[in-house]
């Protein structure tokens, strides 16, 4: 594959190959070693990852942050949040019902649920969301100009620095308060890590809720199956993660020569990983282009794989498992308010999804 900057690298699409690369320490995630695969992206080499940005780090630096956070995102801890997620979901559904019979699902449902939850988990005031939501959106735009991305990162960093200063002065009973009190992180590390967790928690699950709803509305038999049997939700979430794979593309750089699937990848060559293609690999998932909530979609790469597998995956599972069945139970006549081809897709974002999802319910 020839990259936009002229680099001669690789594209990996098969499930077994992509999974192998994600787990192989001979492939690096460090930004400064990677070539950008998308047209319109930065033409100059990328700088090293900002402090706290775990995505652009290798071991042992990545390991230090991961160990610090892993115990705070366990399955048990995230399941303890289920009741709060149910409360937030019900509040959003009540608001939808009051303003109905139509809405942009992104605005009134998909974004607020994970935003409220991640803000409460981290200890970020939800009322401040206008100060950080736009910055997070820009950072996740694949073709954002370098100066726009830099301004967004600076803005988010400035906001988090104010918050960290307050947490240091008076630690609170939340994740950032705990880290401020006893983690040993510097102010710069806590600012960077807090911004990284906030941006990730705001965007990924919001897009899965919205795009998952879109997929179900386009597959009414599957939506009806979920409506009839809410207990199907955990399995449905895994299939939707496979089917949509909203975190769609990764890049790695070979640190040494690696022979893989009969190809020799030389040191310094970038490999673009199409996680979406891997999750539609017919050798791994029969009839992969069909959404089938009865499928056991184990082994999907919707949360990644290896040391960079999504830290917040258990929280995302709780939010999706609660939100999607509740939406279809409350609004059994939910439907698209515009033709499917008019739904604006996030084709220029690092996290795939929809910009808006106009829906309606009740009588036609």
Offer a concise description of the structure:
With 364 residues, the protein is of the alpha+beta class.
SSE order and pairing:
Elements: E1 10-12, H1 15-22, E2 27-28, H2 61-70, H3 75-79, H4 82-99, E3 102-104, H5 105-110, H6 112-122, H7 129-139, H8 146-169, H9 175-182, H10 187-217, H11 220-228, H12 233-244, E4 249-254, E5 258-260, E6 263-265, E7 270-274, H13 275-278, H14 313-330, E8 335-336, E9 358-360
Parallel strand pairs: 1-7
Antiparallel strand pairs: 2-4, 3-9, 4-7, 5-6, 8-9
Helix pairs in contact: 4-6, 4-14, 6-10, 7-8, 7-10, 8-10, 10-14, 12-14
Structural summary, described in words:
The chain has 364 residues and is an alpha+beta fold. It has a single domain (10-356), classed as Cytochrome p450. Helix content is 48%, strand content 8%. It has helices spanning 15-22, 61-70, 75-79, 82-99, 105-110, 112-122, 129-139, 146-169, 175-182, 187-217, 220-228, 233-244, 275-278, 313-330; strands at 10-12, 27-28, 102-104, 249-254, 258-260, 263-265, 270-274, 335-336, 358-360. The strands form 3 sheets. Strands 1-7-4-2 form a 4-stranded mixed sheet. Strands 3-9-8 form a 3-stranded antiparallel sheet. A two-stranded antiparallel sheet has the order 5-6. α4 (82-99) runs parallel beside α14 (313-330). The longest helix is centred in the middle third of the chain and has 31 residues, at 187-217. The N and C termini lie far apart (49 Å). The model has no long low-confidence stretch (mean pLDDT 92).
């Amino acid at each position: 594959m020839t990259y936009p900057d002229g680099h001669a690298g690789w594209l990996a699409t098969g499930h077994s190959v992509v999974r192998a690369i994600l787990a192989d320490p001979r492939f690096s995630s460090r930004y400064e070693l990677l070539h950008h695969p998308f047209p319109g992206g930065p033409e100059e080499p990328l700088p090293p990852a900002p402090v706290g940005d775990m995505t652009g780090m290798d071991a042992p630096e990545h390991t230090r942050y991961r160990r610090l956070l892993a115990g705070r995102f366990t399955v048990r801890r995230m399941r303890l949040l289920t009741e709060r997620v149910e409360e937030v979901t019900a509040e959003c559904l009540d608001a939808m019902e009051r303003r109905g019979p139509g809405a942009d699902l992104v605005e009134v449902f998909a974004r607020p649920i994970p935003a409220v939850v991640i803000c409460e988990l981290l200890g970020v005031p939800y009322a401040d969301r206008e100060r950080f939501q736009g910055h997070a959106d820009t950072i996740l735009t694949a073709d954002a100009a370098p100066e726009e991305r830099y301004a967004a990162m600076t803005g988010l960093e400035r906001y988090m620095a104010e918050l960290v200063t307050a947490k240091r002065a008076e630690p609170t009973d939340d994740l950032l308060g705990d880290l401020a009190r006893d983690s040993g992180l510097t102010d710069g590390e806590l600012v960077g890590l807090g911004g990284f967790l906030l941006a990730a928690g705001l965007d990924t699950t919001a897009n899965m809720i919205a795009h998952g709803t879109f997929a179900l509305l386009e597959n009414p038999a599957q939506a009806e199956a979920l409506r009839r049997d809410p207990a199907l939700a955990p399995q449905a979430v895994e299939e939707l993660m496979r089917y949509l794979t909203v975190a769609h593309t990764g890049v790695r750089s070979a640190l040494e020569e690696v022979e893989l699937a009969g190809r020799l990848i030389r040191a310094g060559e970038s490999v673009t990983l199409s996680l979406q293609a891997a999750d539609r690999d017919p050798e791994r998932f029969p009839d992969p282009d069909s959404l089938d909530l009865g499928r056991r979609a184990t082994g999907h790469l919707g949360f990644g794989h290896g040391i960079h597998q999504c830290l917040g995956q258990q929280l995302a599972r709780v939010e999706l498992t609660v939100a999607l069945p509740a939406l279809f139970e409350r609004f059994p006549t939910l439907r698209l308010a515009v033709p499917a081809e008019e739904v604006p897709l996030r084709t220029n974002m690092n996290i795939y999804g929809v910009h808006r999802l106009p829906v309606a319910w009740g009588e036609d």
